[in-house]
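Homework help thread (please don't just give me the answer)

Our assignment gives two proteins as sequence + structure token strings and asks us to describe the second one. The first is just a warm-up. Here they are:
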Amino acid sequence: MEKMWAGRFKKEADKRVNDFNSSMSFDSKLYRQDIEGSIAHATMLGKVGIINKEEADKIVAGLKDILSDIEQGKLEFNFDAEDIHMFIEQELTNRLNDTGKRLHTARSRNDQVALDFKMYQKDEIKKIKSLVCKLVETIINLASKHKNTIMCGYTHLQRAQPVTFGHYMMAYVQMLLRDIDRLNDCYARTDVMPLGSCALAGTTYPIDRYFVCNMLNFSKVTMNSLDGVSDRDSCIELTSTLSILMMHLSRLSEEIILWCSWEFRFLELDDAFATGSSIMPQKKNPDVAELIRGKTGRVIGDLLTLITMMKGLPLAYNKDMQEDKEATFDAVDNIKLCISTLIPMIETVKVKEENMRKAAAEGFINATDCADYLVKKGMPFRDAYKVTGEIVALCIDKQKTLETLELSEYKKVCDLFCEDIYDFINLDECVKQRDVVGGPAPNRVKEQIDSSKDELFNLKKQQPVI
């Protein structure tokens, strides 16, 4: 295939250069966006009279035919082409001859690829937002069933204070709602159309950028042609947002991995979302969660690729920027795969409530409540803290829990203890008494669930609408 710059050069490019320079192997993913952008551009050229209206109509019809042929499998990509943009333009020229050659009037590949890439990002943000919304709904449904399921809350991975499994799950809902909010913000800054910037300095043709902007459903146009072709903030922001989202999924996955272990036994994965061992018949491995945890590093690496690529580039377009697509495609594809698999895994997980309760009972996680009991009897908190520590040490020596230690033993340490201590340190009561906004009391978890549903509803209504 003859290069479009062939008139300037006396020698053909070395095949190794062609192979190295080509992006067709990965940017063919943008065929639909490229064709839709070209249809809008051709329509505008005909509208303002830069090319003949009849020729513009032929170009639009030819582009629609190419799109149909690609999607029906009638037209295969030619991977000898330099990129998807030149492949489609060459195919159009083969079909329409000189008329097809008029398509590229008043634009450059620089603003063409910037347009295609932003259109792709807008499409993918919508899909990812939809998946995250579904994941939030799935976790809320699980939390709703376990508002009263007592479990340990941890700090330093040590048993700390009593919460409920529903409360624990709602913490992840809060993270994911912030992720949806970030996706909405990212979409707003991506929704700016660069076409019309041309190579770097605009064009002398009387183009109508706002017509194309409206036709392609962008909210506004870029206001500086240099920035229009050299800006890659949108894909950096997207991969940054996806990296934070993946970090949250990785934290959840780590909890699931721990909780499915024999040491915890808080959860059991459905057989359809676990794997076995090639040698150990007893194994049931949480491979889905482990892969999500592993792929998080990959998505963060994609972000690092983009930031590093852009950090030293002068204005305007540089060939380095061809590296933007593979990193972004990789981040997008992996996060969609991870969430699509995580949702049904959570939907089918078995919660082992008795094991959670047993671990909570044996962990002295009501020790703070014991200290608070003494404070409410008039003892300063630091003194109450010390007394409770002595009680815990006594329980460990006698292999007792705070609930099973005899009242006489309590009184040997401090005579403020009375029979009502057992009501005060009851795990259900401990959780119920944490009746503050955002706390683990069942009524407060219900409050979190209701407010999260409202927030999710409002986030869904914001752009991008799904």
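The one we have to describe:
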Amino acid sequence: MEGSKKITYFWGIVFWAVCLLVLGADIREVHAEGEIKVIREAKGDLEQLEAICVSEDILSEWRLEESTQNSAGAADDGVQEFLSYSSDYGYRDMAKRSNAAARQDAYRQLETICRNFSTNGKDAEIRTSDGKEYAAAGVVELPEYSMTWDELAEIYFMFRNDNPQYFWLSNQVLYSMKSSGVGASIIPLTYDAYRSGAARSSTLEEIVETAQTVYQQKITSADDGYHKVLKLHDILIADIEYSKDTSIPTSHPIAGAMTSARSAVCEGYAKVMQLMMNCYCIENIYITGDAGGGHAWNMVCMNDGNYYWLDATWDDQPYEEYQHQYFLVGNQNFTDHTADAATGSGKYFLYELPLASDEDYVYSPDVPVPSKGDINGDGRVTMTDLLMCLHHVSGRSLLAGDAFLMADINGDGAVKMTDLLRILHYVSGRNPAL
């Protein structure tokens, strides 16, 4: 009889546990103040990614202090345009994930914070938690959502993958979750080298100048998509040296490759390629994964509508000035790379990738190249396209269909003043890139 009671008790516990799961009880992972969660371990060229817990009480104290995120500084058109050289692949992928609305809300807040922090010239706010100092750029508030720490970390690092122009974004992020289960925050940080507003501003100016004089100056209006990618690949390889010291923080973002250091690891190579292809509205994706160790590279969508692999780091070899063994290749010649996947979480998580072509890309000049800015579809970007964009922005005559897509230069799903300025600078000859 005693044994029967034990069996009944056991199955009773199982029953109620199942009920709690089915009913969606809020079973949350509790983290201690200052606890570090390793999102991705340092491996190969890839730097370690960390999410650090901040208590609700500490975050409440921080909110009482003045925040940098509420003010944007003046920046010339060249800087503002440069800050729009982003991807939105990670943002679009968020629609497929848990808490999609919260993820995309947080992403948009991060964009505002990062743009303002890049231009306001202010020093980062030094926050103290568990005896350690952190240089904060602002606070993303998600008061209406119940989030897991995995979701919060993935939001930040997917945003970071999409936006190489924010070179100062640290490999660490702070997060906080309310004990009630509803409400969370993300606190983006800067690398120590860019705590100073003056250092951040001078670095940004140097990077923008490098983009214009080293890369854009060598691209002409006669170059189609293929030749733009080819030139960017070759310019990058000729201009920088591979860094064997992965401990230097600036070797991972674009800062190492686009300042006087002219040195980067694979992450820096891939992010410069991503940034400059974004500049020319060439659809591409920043990839992390394994290639005999942690590694980063790119996927590129060419004018045949197919995706191909590109690894500028592995093409930068001392025995050959311009190697193209890993330039726009298909799956059959890319078997030594394995990308991270959306099926994983934490350190193994990456957005869902499109299928790549099995065959290498074969250049065909006869295939039409869709061109951003060519709103009327005549194969050129001229004053006519500028006026059509102006009429849309002013509300006089709204664009739709393919015309709208071609006018959306920065790919943010809207046609506004930023897109109009980019077309204006192109048509006037001020900037050879759209």
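TA reply:
I won't write it for you, but here's a hint about the kind of observation we're looking for: The chain is about 35% helix and 15% strand.
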